[in-house]
Amino acid sequence: MSGTNFLDKLLDGGEFQTKSLGELGTFIRGSGIQKSDFTESGAGCIHYGQIHTHYGTWATETKSYISHDYATRLRKAHTGDLVIATTSEDDDAVAKAVAWLGEEAVAVSTDAYIYRHAANPKYMSYFFQTEFFQSQKKPHITGTKVRRISGASLAKIQIPIPCPDNPKKSLEIQAEIVRILDSFTELTAELTAELTARKKQYNYYRGRLFSFEDGNVKWKTLGDVTKKWYSGGTPTAGKAEYYDGGDIPWLRTQEVRFSDIEDTEVKITQKALVDSAAKWIPANCVIIAISGATAGRSAVNKIPLTTNQHCGCLEIDSAKALYRYVFHWVAYNYENIKALGQGARGDLNSSIIKGFPLPIPYADDPEKSLAEQGRIVAILDKFDALTNSITEGLPREIELRQKQYEYYRDLLLSFPKPAEVEA
């Protein structure tokens, strides 16, 4: 697909303009809704946290419900509206949007905006994923621990609209762009479904390996096999002396993805290390996200690094347990660990993590115990490579398909400015 020729053909002699989101629609702040308000059934609702963890580009059904009486008092998203999560610990996730396409209006929580507009809702939602949107959004993000963006700031962001003076033609072009992007999404979904089935098989065998049916096991805690617990800190965001030219790997919770960590997306400087709570963590720790949407996810750092304060790191005593054995056990128990979270954000802490039970095979014979742990690790590492490795198999194919999708999405939703066309 040639970008310029394809867009010219789509426009068919028409023109396009960049419009501000404020010109095209209205931002309405959500209201109410705590997780404690959820009911078994009732009126559909969207909690801002679920936009990060449950919803994709669009949705027709909600994950949660509240009572009809309570719903009557809340602001609602109607069919075609966007629902936008305005807060996150990660700048990239601030202003994540989902197009609500369900037939019934749904209540929306605080820390979210309803965006009411007249454009194609999927076109709008796809635009919120583009680099063009991200680059405009980032200068407006505020806050330290929790990052956020206001409706007034979102209203200033520019979006390309084809043929805005011809609403019918404009919607037709938007629909064609959506059709193309939907086709990429569907192909990726098929691969993802196959990978999900493979992961279920992996989880079944992992459960069998951890069952210890012969009874030669003693239950300890993660704290019993931990030599040292580490946490981290975040150097002041936006302070150039803490980030520019930095070469110290600094891990954020969004990079904790049940895998080995060979590098980090962000680096910090020596001054940032001195001036913040961030600290060096030795290689081969079991890292567990302890806060927010990623709480309970785990990883192993294959390099020494630093982390933010939302990562808890276990340095395992190698005389008592293999770090990869502990990692596989923690990854297997993700849902159980996550369920122990406290407060509205489901946060974990060192006491919760270190108190979590851990089965140690042949605990009375350390040499035999470590050998059995090694046998289990060797099997699970092979399964893990098949289901999670981004260098082979389905995960690699999905990653390539996703990159292809992102390329065309940004191509189709980042029209050149009028001045560039004239040039």
General description of the model:
The protein is α+β, with helices and mostly antiparallel strands and 423 residues long. The chain folds into two domains: 3-187 and 403-422, Adenine-n6-DNA-methyltransferase TaqI, Chain A, domain 2 (Alpha-Beta Complex), CATH 3.90.220; 217-361, Adenine-n6-DNA-methyltransferase TaqI, Chain A, domain 2 (Alpha-Beta Complex). The protein is 38% helix and 21% strand. It is built from 16 helices and 23 strands. It has helices at residues 3-11, 21-24, 48-53, 68-71, 121-127, 131-137, 151-154, 167-209, 240-243, 270-275, 323-332, 334-338, 350-354, 366-388, 393-412, 418-422; strands at 16-20, 25-29, 43-46, 58-59, 64-66, 76-77, 82-85, 87-88, 96-100, 106-108, 112-117, 147-148, 158-162, 217-221, 226-230, 248-251, 260-261, 266-268, 286-289, 298-301, 306-307, 311-316, 357-361. It has a five-stranded mixed β-sheet. A hairpin with an 8-residue loop joins strand 19 (286-289) and strand 20 (298-301). The protein is globular, with a radius of gyration of 24 Å. The chain starts with a helix and ends with a helix.
